[in-house]
Amino acid sequence: MYFVAIGAIATLAGALxxxxxxxxxxxxxxxxxxxxxxxxxxxxxxxxxxDDAAAxxxxxxxxxxxxxxxxxxxxxxxxxxxAARHGSTEAQYELGNALREGSGVVQxxxxxxxxxxxxxxxxxxxxxxxxxxxxxxGMGVPADNAKAYMWFNxxxxxxxxxxxxxxxxxxxxxxxxQVLEAQADARRLSQAPAKRSxxxx
Length: 201
Known about the structure:
The structure is a single chain. 75% of the residues lie in helices and 0% in strands. By secondary structure, the protein is an all-alpha fold. The chain is elongated, with a radius of gyration of 27 Å. The termini are far apart.
């Protein structure tokens, strides 16, 4: 009984000490996290102001979601455009898609196609699929089933949902020579994605 009482007192004392020592630690951890976030935001802004495309893209998303900064759609759009102009494939795709959908910007199919093509040529599979749709429907670009087939073929190779169905549906609209040429173009693009950040619209 004596040992049980001593064990209970030791356990109680240990729990009390843990709680007393642990309580001041939580606010300190919270302030450390806030300091790290503030440092990360400041670092991202500095890098973005020096035309770092990855930082510009990250900053665009921070403004879009209000993460670490006050949310601001206009600033988000400005940083997204800067990132796209400085070669961020993800930003080029997002900007092209926003222009195509008219999401947060004035809808502009021609400009959308140019941004999507930059991302698609560099291997972005979602941009390849979107560009295939645009060539198939003649939206922002002249309708061209062979080019649509090529872009869908590239997107299908990267398992973009629906791309293989779209690609295969176009086979009936193409001659065998067009299919072979489109496949050769797709093969060239898939083997050596071009660096075309300097061709930004």
